[in-house]
Amino acid sequence: MSEEKVAPSELRYLFLALSKEWERSILEHAQAHDLTSAQVEILLVLNESGPYSMQDLGQMLLLNRDPFRSVDSLVAKGLVERGSGEDKRKVLWSLTDAGAEAAADIVSADLSLLQDFVGDLPTESTAKLVHLFRSLQGKVTTLGVLEQRFSSQQSPVQEVLAAKSSNEVQINRSSVIASRLRQTLEMKGAGDAGAAFDKYSPQLAERGIEMPYRTWVGLLENGGPVSRHVLAQLSHVLTGNPAYLSTDDENVLKDVENHMRAENALLLAGVTGFGGRGALDAGALQALAELVQKRLNDGA
After folding, report:
1. Distance separating alpha carbons of residues 71 and 84, to the nearest angstrom
2. Exposed end of the chain (fewer CB within 10 Å): N or C?
3. How many C-beta atoms surround the C-beta of residue 120 within 10 A?
4. pLDDT at position 43, please?
5. What's the distance, CA 158 to chain centroid?
6. Which of 106, 128, 133 is nearest to 22 (CA)?
7. In this predicted structure, what is the pLDDT of residue 163?
8. How far apart are CA 93 and CA 50, in angstroms?
């Protein structure tokens, strides 16, 4: 294979050209809402982990660190709403339902553009490209912002490239998922949002998922945005079943919930001394939980 050649300024202009073309396509898609690049980014950030104060919102933006004018415009379009208070710097800003729908449309357009740009490349080449850009992120001061914004929305490259729609790889917002996640944490006695995050985020990290606390809160309140890959990992950590948090299968829901109830009952028995023999070890707890779960299922 011949040696690759490059001019000193060439890569800079290649990056700029690709970025400008991608941005042009996104703005073309967003014409229905008459959005600017800055407004598109604000919609995405508020969708990902809002609400934000104006000051905190500015810290999360890459294109425009002074969002005042753009936010006012989005309010006028009915896409963003403000909380109570007189000081714009301290009041919290969040998306309306229309704003959440617009953000989901932008994510869908981003997926289509990504597939258009790299769809002709082998999956391995695209994976290497992602790895290369991630390696270069260390030279960018906004690295932490990118990690906070996108870590919970990531999916395996092959799944992203094969998806026919963004909904196949990502859930924007779901009241069902939010409610089921809160119910699961309550059934497991995980405590408030902070205590549950402290308990389960290390287990997610062991699976390669770094979930910021704001994203965790967003999942509890809005049910997303989150990739189906991350949601499956979270579901597995919480319940042992990767499908539970997103499934519509009543049999799966009943089976997992009965198992959690059985675990709770037996754990309580183990803590207080089951039959006077002291606490149950993990293996005994699992076996007894399965037995109680079977009795619950048979009696349902």
Report:
1. 15
2. N
3. 8
4. 97
5. 18
6. 106
7. 97
8. 7
What tokens were used for 110?
A: 């981003």
Residues of the chain with pLDDT under 50: 271-280
Name the H helices within 61-164: 68-76, 97-118, 123-137, 143-150, 157-162
For 191-200, b/e burial (b = at least 16 CB within 10 A) is eebeebbeeb
Dihedral sign for Cα 59, 65, 69, 70, please: negative
Beta bridge partners of 92: 53
- The whole-number pLDDT of residue 152 equals 94
Give the contacts of 237 (CB within 8 A, at least 6 positions apart): 200, 203, 204, 207
**Residue 267 has what pLDDT?**
66
State the pLDDT at residue 277.
39
What pTM does this model have?
Answer: 0.86
Residue 244: strand, helix, or coil: coil
> CA 40 to CA 79: how far, in whole Å?
11
User: What is the C-alpha separation between 178 and 191, in angstroms, rounded?
Assistant: 16
Query: What is d(CA 79, CA 1) in angstroms, rounded to the nearest whole number?
Result: 52
> Which residue's entry shows tokens 């023999």?
277
* Cβ contact 33:77 at 8 Å: yes
**Which tokens in the block code for residue 213?**
């606390």
Sign of CA dihedral 128, 133, 134, 138: positive
Give me the residue label for tokens 């508020």.
Answer: 46
pLDDT given at position 286:
62
Q: Please state, as a whole number, how many other Cβ atoms lie within 10 Å of the Cβ of residue 85.
A: 11
φ, ψ of residue 280 in degrees (nearest 5)? -80, 140
What pLDDT is attached to residue 275?
Answer: 39
Q: Which of 159, 169, 174 is nearest to 222 (CA)?
A: 174
